[in-house]
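re: ur question from earlier - yeah i can do the single chain one, its not a big deal. heres the input i used so u can compare w yours
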Amino acid sequence: MQSQQPMKRLFAICGVFLTCSATAQTRFPADIERFIERRDQCDHFRGEEPYDQERREFLHQRLAEFCVGTDKQLAELKQKYRSNKAVMKKLNQYEPQIEG
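and the output i got, formated as tokens:
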């Protein structure tokens, strides 16, 4: 039993650090975080090469999933958070119009 105590303490300490680290990384409101995640996926797939028909269809599906509606959402979020400098700085990194 004694030999397990240091290991339990180590796991407890690691858990505390991981929890604090994850909490510290959340800098934006939840709706902004969701937009960032979705739009980053969109931008990733926008940059992919459709080298064959199967890949083209896959990319078309991903673009529909991650990109459709983000132009409008970006404009709405910019309006909602227009007085939040940190949020605006992040949102201004995205192209305002990517949907045809």
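Confidence is low (pLDDT under 50) at residues 14-24. not sure if urs matches, ping me
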